[in-house]
Amino acid sequence: MLLYIETKAKSYPLTQTLIQQFSQREVIEIQHYKNLFDKTISYPTLPALMIAKQEPIAILPTPAHYGYPGKSFFFKPSLNCVFDCSYCYLKGTFKNAFPVIFVNDEDIQTALGQHICKLREEGYTGQITFYASNYTDVLAIDHWTHFCERFFPFFAHYENVLLEVRTKSANIEGLKQLAMEQMRREAGKEVGKHVEIAFSLSPESLAQAYEPFTAPLQKKLEAIEELLQLGYRVGLRFLPLLPVEQYEKVYGTLIEQVKKAVTIEQIASIFIAPLIYNARDLAVMKKKYAVAGKEAFPFWEGLQADEQGLMKMSASHYECFAQLFRAGFPWKEIWWDYR
Ligand code: SF4
Fold it and tell me: Across the beta sheet with 277-278, what order do the strands follow?
């Protein structure tokens, strides 16, 4: 493992924790992660991880109609994702696939806190949602970064503020430990209601084809149930919806598998979302996968530009998927994560 470490990130405790976790490592000190991260790496390299200090701290408003109602923001505890799903827009967004972990938690939390206070001072009293997983899968690497342990207590200080941790992993050991500690400290008090662990689920056949490194569906369903029993707030995400051949049947099977394995009444929310790219990212991805041919990603061909130039599935597919999920979970509200 190559560990690229920014000089200014060296002294952070998380940097030391990360270094200790990789016994087979070569440490290379760098001035700025972007000097490497913003370059296309077209030659084979050893697996690499970059450890950096984020400055300035990025807190970005979500697009309109994204996620929960209220005010919502993305922030970036890390960049890139170890799962490397083949359709993932991060391949178009970033020039290379090296994960970056930002180690200056205090700066990130100070910026988040200031953001919340500013909105409250301006008189906004509604829900504020922060999404930690738009550029990464924080739970997938929680055993490296201890993100949950580092950030959950911070969010617990604020009223009507929710952190969403979205994942395609079943990596819940850290969450289980947190719950145990909470029970030891404050018996009877529920864990993490200010955090929603949102599991992103795909039909098995599609996961095998396009998300082969993510946790198997069965493991995710077991993780969901386990977290519910520990008192966590858990959500379900069905995304990206892929209008493949016989998609009604494929997704219908998934819905039945979920209903069988999970206590749906305890699920906090269900969101669905299509595959959406900006035109530039899609062009980059098509170029990257040119060798695989059109048949590798048949659903790309049907994407249509909306009025803002975003590439999305057709209106009729939107309608069919909405009907499918409403019929599958008739007693739950089905939200569009991003239309
Ligand atoms: S898990 Fe999500 S963020 Fe990670 S590669 Fe797959 S789609 Fe992208």
Answer: 277-278, 310-312, 304-305
CB-based contact 158:205 (threshold 8 Å) = no
Task: Give the distance (Å) from ligand 1 centre to CA of residue 157.
Answer: 29
Q: Which of 76, 78, 168 maximizes ligand 1 atoms within 8 Å of its Cβ, making it the mutation to test the pocket?
A: 168
For the chain, give the number of residues: 339
The rounded distance, in Å, linking the Cα atoms of 295 and 185 is: 55
Look at the block and give the residue holding tokens 């404050």.
186
Contact criterion met (CB below 8 Å) for 251 and 327:
no
Q: Considering only CA atoms, which residue is closest to atom 4 of ligand 1? A: 81
- Please give the C-alpha separations between residue 142 and each of 145, 236, 333, in angstroms, as whole numbers: 5, 19, 30
Sign of CA dihedral 183, 186, 190, 192: negative
Is 186 a residue whose pLDDT tops 80? no
CA of 137 to the centre of ligand 1 (A): 7
Average pLDDT over residues 253-262: 98
pTM score, two decimals?
0.95
168: Cβ below 6 Å to ligand 1? Answer: yes
Task: Write out the two tokens for 88.
Answer: 């993932």
Which residue in this structure is represented by tokens 């099977």?
253
In this structure, the residue with its CA closest to atom 6 of ligand 1 is 85
Query: pLDDT tens-digit profile of 58-83?
Result: 999 999 889 999 999 999 999 999 99
CA-closest candidate to residue 51, choices 74, 82, 19: 19
Can you tell me which atom of ligand 1 is nearest the CA of 90? 8
Distance from C-alpha of 205 to C-alpha of 216, rounded to nearest angstrom: 11
